[in-house]
Amino acid sequence: MSMPRRAGGRAGHTPSLTGLAAERASGALLCDAGTVYLRDGQVVHAESPVAPGIEVLLTTGGG
Protein backbone atom coordinates (compact mmCIF):
# COMPACT_ATOMS: atom_id res chain seq x y z
CA MET A 1 0.00 0.00 0.00
CA SER A 2 1.53 3.35 -0.95
CA MET A 3 1.50 6.33 1.36
CA PRO A 4 -0.96 9.11 0.53
CA ARG A 5 0.72 12.05 -1.17
CA ARG A 6 -0.52 15.30 -2.62
CA ALA A 7 1.03 16.64 -5.77
CA GLY A 8 2.63 19.98 -4.92
CA GLY A 9 1.91 19.56 -1.20
CA ARG A 10 3.76 21.61 1.39
CA ALA A 11 6.10 20.02 3.89
CA GLY A 12 4.30 19.57 7.20
CA HIS A 13 0.91 20.04 5.52
CA THR A 14 -1.72 17.40 6.31
CA PRO A 15 -3.73 16.51 3.19
CA SER A 16 -7.51 16.58 3.41
CA LEU A 17 -9.57 13.44 2.93
CA THR A 18 -11.42 15.24 0.12
CA GLY A 19 -8.15 15.90 -1.70
CA LEU A 20 -6.93 12.35 -1.18
CA ALA A 21 -10.27 10.99 -2.45
CA ALA A 22 -9.97 13.12 -5.59
CA GLU A 23 -6.46 11.77 -6.15
CA ARG A 24 -7.60 8.18 -5.49
CA ALA A 25 -4.80 7.83 -2.94
CA SER A 26 -4.03 4.59 -1.10
CA GLY A 27 -2.22 4.19 2.22
CA ALA A 28 -2.43 5.20 5.86
CA LEU A 29 -3.06 8.75 7.04
CA LEU A 30 -1.73 9.17 10.59
CA CYS A 31 -2.92 11.89 12.96
CA ASP A 32 -3.20 12.52 16.71
CA ALA A 33 -6.68 10.95 16.84
CA GLY A 34 -5.65 7.73 15.09
CA THR A 35 -5.13 6.27 11.63
CA VAL A 36 -7.33 6.32 8.53
CA TYR A 37 -6.62 3.72 5.85
CA LEU A 38 -7.41 4.57 2.23
CA ARG A 39 -7.67 2.46 -0.90
CA ASP A 40 -8.22 4.21 -4.23
CA GLY A 41 -9.41 7.32 -2.36
CA GLN A 42 -11.97 5.53 -0.21
CA VAL A 43 -11.76 5.03 3.55
CA VAL A 44 -11.61 1.28 4.15
CA HIS A 45 -10.72 1.27 7.86
CA ALA A 46 -10.11 3.68 10.74
CA GLU A 47 -8.50 3.18 14.14
CA SER A 48 -8.41 5.41 17.20
CA PRO A 49 -7.03 4.81 20.68
CA VAL A 50 -9.92 6.90 22.09
CA ALA A 51 -12.68 4.83 20.46
CA PRO A 52 -14.68 2.71 22.92
CA GLY A 53 -13.95 -1.02 22.98
CA ILE A 54 -16.47 -3.71 22.10
CA GLU A 55 -17.21 -4.34 25.79
CA VAL A 56 -18.36 -0.72 26.22
CA LEU A 57 -20.41 -0.80 23.06
CA LEU A 58 -22.17 -4.01 24.12
CA THR A 59 -22.98 -2.86 27.65
CA THR A 60 -24.17 0.66 26.77
CA GLY A 61 -26.43 -0.22 23.84
CA GLY A 62 -29.57 1.87 23.40
CA GLY A 63 -32.88 0.63 24.59
Architecture overview:
- The protein has 63 residues and is α+β, with helices and mostly antiparallel strands.
- It has one domain (1-63).
- The model is unreliable at 5-10 (pLDDT under 50).
- Helix content is 19%, strand content 27%.
- It has helices at 17-22, 54-59; strands spanning 27-31, 34-39, 42-47.
- A hairpin with a 2-residue loop joins β1 and β2.
- The protein is elongated, with a radius of gyration of 15 Å.
Topology:
Layout: H1 17-22, E1 27-31, E2 34-39, E3 42-47, H2 54-59
Antiparallel strand pairs: 1-2, 2-3
Could you tell me how far the N terminus lies from the C terminus, measured between alpha carbons in angstroms?
Answer: 41 Å
Mean pLDDT: 80
The helix tally amounts to 2
- State the strand order across the main sheet: 1-2-3
User: Quick one: overall form?
Assistant: elongated
Give the strand tally. 3
Biggest sheet overview = 3 strands, antiparallel
Percentage beta strand:
25-35%
Summary?
The chain has 63 residues and is α+β, with helices and mostly antiparallel strands. It has helices at residues 17-22, 54-59; strands at residues 27-31, 34-39, 42-47.
Notable features of this structure?
single chain, about 60 residues, three-stranded antiparallel sheet, elongated, 3 strands, alpha+beta
